Known about the structure:
Blueprint: H1 2-30, H2 35-47, H3 49-52, H4 56-72, H5 85-101, H6 107-118, E1 134-137, H7 138-141, E2 144-147, E3 160-163, E4 168-169, E5 172-173, E6 179-181, H8 183-189, E7 200-204, E8 208-213, E9 221-222, E10 226-230, H9 238-246, H10 268-272, E11 275-278, H11 281-326
Parallel strand pairs: 3-9
Antiparallel strand pairs: 1-11, 2-10, 3-6, 4-5, 7-8, 7-10
Helix pairs in contact: 1-2, 1-4, 4-11, 5-6
Amino acid sequence: xxxxxxxxxxxxxxxxxxxxxxxxxxxxxxxxxxxxxxxxxxxxxxxxxxxxxxxxxxxxxxxxxxxxxxxxxxxxxxxxxxxxxxxxxxxxxxxxxxxxxxxxxxxxxxxxxxxxxxxxxxxxxxxxxxxxxxxxxxxxxxxxxxxxxxxxxxxxxxxxxxxxxxxxxxxxxxxxxxxxxxxxxxxxxxxxxxxxxxxxxxxxxxxxxxxxxxxxxxxxxxxxxxxxxxxxxxxxxxxxxxxxxxxxxxxxxxxxxxxxxxxxxxxxxxxxxxxxxxxxxxxxxxxxxxxxxxxxxxxxxxxxxxxxxxxxxxxxxxxxxxxxxxx
Length: 327
């Protein structure tokens, strides 16, 4: 037992040192002042990848770093021929105005959204973005940003799935322990705006800042502490905005900071005025393609780590059983 305790302490010390080393090296990537140094730091990390990225936590840290680089404009190159984000925002503004003026998603909500748009401003002292990028608030990027019906919906044994905050995790929607509502409840709870495939959902509490995209072919009812983001078609790539909202520095871009004496939660205005670093549309597509590629690689590596750990556990069990039988 004493030997086991010693080995456990040494392993804990080694794991702590490993985590510190991984975070230090990953920080050099996000802190690289230019593309040349970033490339050099990537190469330095790549040389020792097999010894650095050996745990699920180190893989998760690498994922977070990739998302940071994506929203900083350091993951893919910029093309001076890309139409700048400022023009894209102008197109969104024009098409949104037409949509709201026509009464979408309904006359009452269109009026509310129009008034909120008039109040939108970005601070003047924001960090400088890459060429062609622009800062915007979330509601400036979208057609509408709508809060949920803030009451507990009456459940039914079957019907339309009711999304709760627990059903939104790690950038995806899950239907674990599903709850359902009737068609009548769905109509009432969706009176401001009916969720549709392609809409982005973000949680305001329990926990804050979890996001997902509603998959194709799904009809869902939005539960409490969730907000809906609907983009103007073919202006912002939904997965780019999803990755931007998953980025670990998200809370630093919230202007109306979280509140709560016991459980912190995002205000509605905090979500609406959240600052988004927006690249040109063509660059959004390049960023999404690169992030998708890297995330798929990381998921395969994590699956390999899990399988390796299972094999080690099976081997340890076999050795212990053999030792006990021998004794």
